[in-house]
């Protein structure tokens, strides 16, 4: 990766962001994507102890649903393999939601309170204790903090002339982000069709070398910024390990 890389946000939110990185190779861009999916650990319910389950759902099904509830995972507060206990006790008639989970650690909470777990009828009860463990997406997909992580080449659009007289505009579909005279424009702003942005014009579209637009969404276990920085740290750590091994 070049030391002169640049990062520019196009859309920035805690759980959804789109940003441009210039000065990186395709291999490095793909390495960041893979690290966000596989190498950044998150907490997820891994073991469930059922105290009472008089619902119509098997214990194993309850455990599966609980494992899919995203839990907040503060950076650098836990090590891989650490566990946090949560409890759930709901009496019917009611619906058990993720927000009903009570954590033994205030830093670890359901990322969403309204994820339904089960509807309980009159006289039914669900009482459990569960252990959330810190692990990575390489072990199980439920530990992937990034629910949607991808990237595309930044594309540059240049007007090269006028369309021929009486020629009907043909759709010219592009997706992602384009660079038009130094301006970054999301393609959904013009319906992903260049003929809407440049009516009556002939345009040329080229990939900008070593410039990639990342689109990242998280499950709420951490922010986009925390996920990206943690992914970069894992790559740095692996590179340092390789350097040390080569020097032995």
Secondary structure: helix percent? 10-25%
The CATH class of the largest domain? Alpha Beta
Distance between the termini: 25 Å
How many extended strands? 12
Structural features, described:
With 248 residues, this protein is α+β, with helices and mostly antiparallel strands. It has 2 domains: 6-39 and 146-234, Gyrase A, domain 2; 43-136, DNA-directed RNA polymerase, insert domain (RNA Polymerase Alpha Subunit, Chain A, domain 2, Beta Complex). Helix content is 20%, strand content 40%. The protein contains 4 helices and 12 strands; from the N terminus they run ββαβαββββββββαβα. It has helices spanning 26-38, 59-67, 194-197, 224-247, and strands at 6-12, 16-22, 42-53, 83-91, 94-97, 102-103, 116-120, 125-135, 146-162, 177-180, 183-186, 201-218. The protein has a 6-stranded mixed β-sheet, covered by helices on one side. A 4-stranded antiparallel β-sheet has the order 3-8-4-6, with helices on one face. A hairpin with a 2-residue loop joins strand 10 and strand 11. It is flat, with a radius of gyration of 24 Å. 27% of the residues are buried. The model has no long low-confidence stretch (mean pLDDT 91).
